Amino acid sequence: MAKEKFDRSKEHANIGTIGHVDHGKTTLTAAIATVLA
């Protein structure tokens, strides 16, 4: 069986965060991912 070509129509972004615990890294990353989705 021939595989169907994967269509990459969305842009990709790698997000790295550095910070202390409970300083909102997860919230910030989720907000950025929501805007880019």
UniProtKB/TrEMBL annotation:
Residues 10-35 form the Tr-type G domain. InterPro entries: P-loop_NTPase (IPR027417), T_Tr_GTP-bd_dom (IPR000795). Pfam families: GTP_EFTU. Gene3D superfamilies: P-loop containing nucleotide triphosphate hydrolases. Coiled coil: none annotated. One of its GO terms (molecular function) is GTP binding. This is Tr-type G domain-containing protein.
